Amino acid sequence: MKTLLSLASVVFFGSFGVVSANEALIERMADPGQWVIQTGDYANQRYSELDQITPANVGDLQIAWTFSTGVLRGHEGGPLVVGDVMYVHTPFPNTLYALDLTNEGRIIWSYSPVQEQDVLAVMCCDTVNRGVAYADGKIFMQQADTTVVALNAATGAVDWSVQNGDPTKGESNTATVMPVGDKVIVGIAGGEYGVRGHVTAYSIADGQRLWRAYSMGPDEDILVDPEKTTHLGKPIGTNSGTNTWEGDQWMIGGGTTWGWYAYDPDENLIYYGTGNPSVWNPGQRPGDNRWSMTIMARDAESGIARWFYQMTPHDEWDYDGVNEMILTERDIDGTRRKLLTHFDRNGLAYTLDRVTGALLSAEKYDPSVNWTSGVDMDPASDTYGRPQVVADYSPDQQGEDENITGICPSMSGVKNQQPAAYSPQTGLFYVPTNQLCMDFEPFRVRYTIGQPYVGATTTLTQVQGGHGGLGNFVAWDDRISQIIWSNPETFSVWSGALATAGGVVFYGTLEGYLKAVDAKTGEELYRFRTPSGIIGNVMSYSQDGRQYVAVLSGIGGWAGIGLAAGLTNPHDGMGAVGRYEALSEYTALGGQLTVFALPD
């Protein structure tokens, strides 16, 4: 009998029409023994069909083997398994290893790119990289300096490379890439340097640039059809990417694309979110600042946008909209609908029809959120789809040089880039979250190419009336827009979750624990302390009929930047150093892959 995900895969990936899809890659995605892109599959569900590990036996997990990466910074992302080979990446300098799973993890080859150290100065929030992807016999990586490289998966030889950005302008990269059909889709980072965000498609075969879509700018730059591309069901009209900006501010407008990507082969649409507008000081950029803070659906072949939805118009809080889009299907009012669910940094969980862009729900997935009273869901209203901003927590309404206290969430969001998981068995989303608020004071700043362009000072603060810790691991039911259970954590949960067909959900903690909980109840079933804090994403694969669970540990990222970079000033890291200073009592620097399995 097929599992629920197998059945879903048949529906989701079953017909391509005229879509030029990589059928071999999709077949590998459907094989639960492999893990060929960072999110597991195009739907971003981070769900494994493997069911050998269950609530009854997960307590017996043991370490099967380990691998040291040799790098002591934040290890985000996770390993890939393609056939009998595991691919393990590191943060800067972005070394990549191919390991033979049939021979005790012997190193088959390694790739160590040569990069200018200058790029480190423009990388926000540690020197992380969220991993590599596989397609067509190649391993793809975008390095910190924005070089996109295609390596021969068998030998590690460079097939082709291309420069995607310019670090001297503040452009860098921390994100993974996504192969789609005959293309590899890549983004760009640097919103705090006045970078204008874009997504680019390169040819898998030879690295030729096929299209580039900017987040803001003239219609020909943002790749839209003014009469057919829609926002909340209405055509966006001409000049939508410039007419909500003052003058030519859109040219340094931010909206970078350093997050995650999803893809629906049947619709041939890719989905992603854009980041904060530049500069943080909202008084310097009046207007909605389109299309920053926007969920975008684009045709994979041409790059032309089908629909947009701007979640936080005229963002005032640095609530980057780049978190993952999770694709599911279910019946709503008797009609089967294709859905997209997104847990945004702004604290709202959105569900949209991913074909039409219709907004179906937008609710707080953390009760501490106070910057908005909610989203106007009345289609007849002039403010339909917009969040209703609470004046007391609005930097724009309070004015420049005014310190606004107690804004929830902080700029790190209720959830940052750490990806959630979804289980078709339970119908629940499993969401790693932060419990932080902030004080925010905007000030006027001038743009200088290649220099920080922020215009605000921030301090991270504790949630008042919370459980006393800095994070929760939450089960969310989007059918009723409610938290089903919530596990408090001492620190923010900065690790990506994994749901499994065995009824177990895994995630990591900043102290370094790999934890396993019951998918239905949240009951903790297992924990193991790895050598360093976990900001990596848990994955699972099988070898010779045995299920394995693997995760990278290595403290760092925004939450662990103090330890990772040796910072002691509590205001550094946009306040993260002071708020997470107690981490030094629990963990230390490291860089290790830890692989778990049940006893033979």
Automatic annotation (TrEMBL):
A molecular function (GO) held by this record is:
oxidoreductase activity, acting on CH-OH group of donors
PANTHER family given in the database record: QUINOPROTEIN ALCOHOL DEHYDROGENASE (CYTOCHROME C) (PTHR32303), QUINOPROTEIN GLUCOSE DEHYDROGENASE (PTHR32303:SF4)
Question: Which residue ranges does the record assign to the Pyrrolo-quinoline quinone repeat domain?
Answer: 35-359, 495-549
Record-annotated active site: 318
What is the species of this protein? Puniceibacterium antarcticum
Q: Which SUPFAM superfamilies match?
A: Quinoprotein alcohol dehydrogenase-like
Query: Could you identify this protein by its name?
Result: Methanol dehydrogenase
Which PROSITE patterns does this UniProt record tie to the protein? BACTERIAL_PQQ_2
